[in-house]
Structures
1.
Amino acid sequence: MFEKISAAPADPILGLTEEFKQDTRPEKINLGVGIYKDESGNTPVLATVKKAEAILLEKETTKSYLSIPGTAEYGLAVQQLLFGTDSPIISSKRAQTAQAPGGTGALRLAAEFIKRQLGDVKVWISNPTWANHNGVFTAAGLETVQYSYYDAQSKDMDFDAALADLAQAAPGDVVLLHGCCHNPTGIDPQAPQWQQLAELCKEKQLLPMFDFAYQGFAKGVEEDAQGLRIFADLCEELLIASSFSKNFGLYNERVGAFTLVAKNSTEATTAFSQVKSIARVIYSNPPAHGAAIVTEILNDAALRAEWEVEVADMRDRIQEMRTLFVQTLKDLGVEADFSFIERQNGMFSFSGLSKEQVNRLKDEFGIYIVGSGRISVAGMTKANMQPLCKGIAAVL
Ligand code: PLP
């Protein structure tokens, strides 16, 4: 029966990691995958996570199933992170949150909810966007349409083109936005632009959906929610997929959340009952450990403060690498202007390197970058900066 099955294409980013692992050159550098690395090139467990785990080990009394949406404490902690502790959305119970297996699980829950409950609407995704967005939405049977986002010339957001494209969307269509640290460009809208986007969604009756995978990696945990909160003030209905893979370093624990905001608590409860039905037939109920860690950290004032420092350390290190990268290229006499790298947010930047240059970097220098030229700045360290920049200078 399996004879007629043909092989699926390898995931381009994870495939690159495999190739990197096989590479025996000691000086190899991986700027492909989106995982935070510290100055030594490691992805350590956060100290606050270790402390929370120690507490959980002590107080855990059962491995019994969680409910379908996970624990209420986790749901509330997620909402406070998204909307702010005193948000009326929380007090009026307009939001409902389901713990999900990672940000990807949250996106898939959202996609299934959209397809089953909102019908044949289109999902507008930025061009470019995270490689998996198209796959997740089409797997749920939805059609995706791209809206302009990146201006290769100015290395900035092409905001007018984005607005013009989204103005073509039909009422009910979904607009997917990156909460902060747009993946792959690192370019986020400014506050007045968020406002304009929110007004457009309201006026055209589009459903905004936020993919929030890097809260804390741009300016700060609170600051990074600015765009979402502008939308939450203006739009009555909203979907959010959160991931805690990066900001808690909980990659393999698969911690995410799907949050739905409705006009009122009755509509929120009814719509959310459908989300629970969807989760029930996909994974039944979520894994407990990662979400328990996040809840423990966010609900303990001391741990929360310490976690914010840990997030700031990751954010600052990436920013420092951005500055050092631009400076090192300059010092090596590279004339091309890379200063845009310093203006961008989060782990990623679009380097502007061509496919040929990316291939040469891999073949000749053992420097791994995805084909689009997206670089994971988190893979840079003080130690690999010279060889990295020398390689880039050689292929420019
Ligand atoms: N959304 C974006 C924009 C991402 O970059 C990622 C991960 O890289 C995800 C979602 C998925 O996160 P998770 O690993 O929690 O599934």
Note: The domain at 65-299 is CATH 3.40.640.10 (Aspartate Aminotransferase; domain 2).
2.
Amino acid sequence: MLKSVHLFGCSSGFVSNLLKPNSIVGFSLTFISSKRLSASSSLCCSSLRLSCPSTAPLFLAPRTGSFKAFCGSTCSEANQDGTSSSPLSMSESPPPSSSTVVHSSSLMQEKIRNIRFCQWCGGQTKHGIPDGEEKLRAICTVCGKITYQNPKMVVGCLIHHDDKVLLCRRKIEPSYGLWTLPAGYLEIGESAADGAIRETLEEANAEVEITSPFAQLDIPLIGQTYIIFMGKLKKPHFSPGPESLECCLFPLDDIPFDSLAFSSMLVTLRLYVEDVKAGRIIFHYGTINKRPGTGASDIHAYTLDYHLRS
Ligand code: ZN
């Protein structure tokens, strides 16, 4: 609690983004940049009379880009791609190409073929298309039941506080060291909203109240659906959970778009920034399709299709 109270005690986004509580007795500075910064960059540190080890831990972003809030005029502006204000709409976003659909289908078939044992009895499976169906299935050779592969639901929170959004830097793979909204897989027995609240508590030790749904984003290629809620902090406290290296509130102009973990987070935050600039937060539905031939780690290589707003 003390750690997060101190974070909120910082009067500016510049200060609060620089400070990372790493112990109960003091602070160190974490510079989040594609460049190694010298200790002389820590102006806010000395002004606040906080401990500033000269060998403060540094995070070297694997992608290009830097953040104005952290490095002031010595670094370049945030990547323009990440802060694009060009609106996406149904008319501007074509449906997924047939090659994307075929690619998705072959991946799903591969997933089905990798199901070797029945989820119900443990018997061996065979693979085929059952009568009345059109898709390849894994069918148990013992009990005859089908083990289906269905999309996973990921739920999370977009927490806004003092015109900033809360992001967590991942302490786990995939995308270790990159930034994300607090989010994770929905558990059996919980609602999407409850799951988003739980994930936020787990990843950011933050108690939040859901205020509205913000986006549903389907990613057919990997069989995931994201539901992101708007939320607000019940108390002005947060700190890294076991799966986070750190948690920070980012002013919208300083969101690290080039160091985000997933396309879904990139899309969500872009839409949110656009909405804020437009003066109205609305609900978005869309389908994220990877551009054929691009790698999974290239989070910018996507199209947002079927973008609907309400
Ligand atoms: Zn079986």
Note: The first strand starts at residue 19 and ends at 21.
